[in-house]
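Let's practice the habit of predicting before peeking. Look at the sequence and jot down your guess about where helices and strands might fall. Then scroll down.
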Amino acid sequence: MTNVTGLYAIGEADYQYHGGNRLGANSLLSCIFTGLFVAPGIRGYIDTHAVDIPSSLLDGRKKAEQDRHNELVKSNGSENPRTLHDELGDTMTRNVTVVRNNTALAETVSKVAELKERYKNMGSPDGGNWTNQSVAFARALDDMITMAEVIAQGALMRDECRGAHFKPEFNIASPDAHDDAGLRQQAVEWCKKFHAKNEKWLKSTVADYNGGDVQYAYEEVDTTLVPVRPRTYGLKGAEIIEEVWQEQFVKKTTAGTA
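Done guessing? Here is the structure:
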């Protein structure tokens, strides 16, 4: 259940399996795992909380959505929604995939702001009310622009390199010494930087949107069941890094909370 009583999020809307960026393989995990326990939860909620509600609670929201639909049907601006969509897709694909840098992200934030303004001058190619696909597309485009803003601005604000949110300028360099003593010293420095990064950035970006400006906040990641550990595959001296991490950070944390 979300923080709106009675409203459930299932599937890819269920964000907690993702890190700084959405990972493709997690969509199957989200659908299967949340489906397994959310569906019975909904059934149980209906059985214990379901009540008849007056239609007046929905009439206002229905009217607002119908007014929005009518507005789009009658829109006669000069901007083509397909053109806006293409420009948005090109910008996001070029600048906001796995490898990211702040210059390109700032460019994207600026471009999305431009598209948001141009959207206000959009025209509908189809003025009909029956199966109007142009209006459905235009409504979806509005959501796409908002989500693009959230993703690009959130990525720009997050100065770290983690998993599929790969900012090379913030990557922790791999040890490269040729002897065990040198590797161990570099492993110690690597672990210190990794620990400092987690202290600052081991949290989820939370975007709050109510139709105006997007507000950003951060939510700490719960690591009580799965403790933090380095991702060392491909790193030289991986075994030493794991050893140093266990000795100097995991054991100290455990002792401090005992």
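How did you do? The CA atoms of residues 18 and 25 lie 10 Å apart.
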